[in-house]
């Protein structure tokens, strides 16, 4: 019974977390800061490229 309650609790925490992410996305769209989105995207691409290079180095 207790394990079932913890699973339900974790599920609700997960849902609340997703709700906050969704609200933050709406907030970002209302602000219309395209510049920050583009820079975040470039930073993410750079991180991905660094990870790929590290994989190549390991192989």
Low-pLDDT segments: none
Oligomeric category? single chain
Task: Write the element-wise H/E pattern from the N-terminal end onward.
Answer: HH
Integer tally of domains: 1
Give the total of beta strands: 0
N- to C-terminal separation?
Answer: 47 Å
pLDDT average, as an integer?
70
Give the class from helix and strand content and strand pairing: mainly alpha
- Which sheet architecture does the biggest sheet show? none
Please count the helical segments: 2
- Taken as a percent bin, the fraction of beta residues is under 5%
Shape: flat
Compute the CA-based radius of gyration: 19 Å
Entry keywords:
mainly alpha
Give a verbal description of the structure.
This protein has one domain. It has helices at residues 2-31, 34-58. The protein has 59 residues and is an all-alpha fold. The model has no long low-confidence stretch (mean pLDDT 70). The longest helix is centred in the N-terminal third of the chain and has 30 residues, at 2-31. Helix content is 93%, strand content 0%.
Short structural summary:
The chain is built from 2 helices and no strands. It has helices at residues 2-31, 34-58. Keywords: Membrane, Nucleomorph, Transmembrane, Transmembrane helix.
């Amino acid at each position: 019974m207790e394990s079932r309650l913890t699973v339900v609790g974790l599920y609700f925490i997960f849902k609340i977390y997703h709700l906050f992410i969704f609200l933050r996305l709406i907030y970002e769209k209302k602000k219309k800061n395209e510049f920050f989105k583009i820079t975040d995207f470039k930073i993410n691409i750079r991180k991905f490229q660094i990870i790929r290079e590290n994989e190549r180095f390991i192989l």
